Amino acid sequence: MSTIVLLLITGLGLGALYFLVASGLSLIYGLMGVLNFAHGSFLTLGAFAGWEVARRLGADSWAVFGLALVVGAGVGAAFAALTELLLVRRLYERHIEQVLVTVGLALATVALFEGAWGSDPEFIEGPAWLRGTTDVAGAPVPNDRFLAIGAAVLVLVGIVLFLRYTRFGLIIRAGVENRAMVTALGIDVRKAFTLVFAVGGAAAGLGGVLASQYFGYVSPHLGAQLLIFAFIVTVIGGLGSLTGAAVAAVLVAVLQQFANYYWGYGDLVVVLLLALVLLVRPSGLLGRRA
């Protein structure tokens, strides 16, 4: 029983990281129709920014860790906003060019990160509580899993509230439905779309700091590793569905944890699940049917 509890909660923690990356992918595609293959770079840069804060100010303090989370999210948001302003803005409705540009940016940033911080992983520590465990039904669950789960829930609720109850959220949703009409009313939709990228980048940067705690290190390839499963989550949940991304993140991560423990083929099981969903329901679990 304790093994099942441990696998379930650690799976939820891993699913939280998948969701923090997939939420930005789903948000950007669902509202703007952009497939952003450079999204993992936002996570990696956010993780390194948080690591730099912890390295310079001391990793054992909760205040420093909180600052690292804020800095990681801020750096991710700034990088995402610059990506939209300088690269993506000219490529709306031009999907092939979007893929080429964002894939090129992803490859270039990995090389840039390796040049700045080296190709070897940089190991990281946080506050003592995060390095400890909590007993749940006899299972020693690492505490950082609870933090990741809580952060993912807050991000999900925050994005939903932002889109439904704020002025910018209203502009974004209206701009998606009829951009020409919103522009004719004197509203600059471009600023709202840049904000969407920034929100997705902030979630990824926050996820990068939490992922460095989850795995115990940060490296130039951290974002790319998580991006693969984030794309799988986004497709299974339904492209553009934030709720679908949350459901799929939990499903994929928990299934992956159990399959890795009992059979050792967790990644294969996830790919088979992706194939099954694409065959049975190509629009995803909660995606809108074409």
UniProtKB/TrEMBL annotation:
Any keyword Transcription regulation?
no
User: What are the alphabetically sorted keywords of the record?
Assistant: Amino-acid transport, Cell membrane, Membrane, Transmembrane, Transmembrane helix, Transport
What membrane topology does the annotation report for this chain? Multi-pass membrane protein
PANTHER family the record matches: ABC TRANSPORTER ATP-BINDING PROTEIN, BRANCHED-CHAIN AMINO ACID TRANSPORT SYSTEM PERMEASE PROTEIN LIVH
Return the protein name. Branched-chain amino acid ABC transporter permease
Cellular compartment(s): Cell membrane
**One Pfam family this sequence matches:** BPD_transp_2
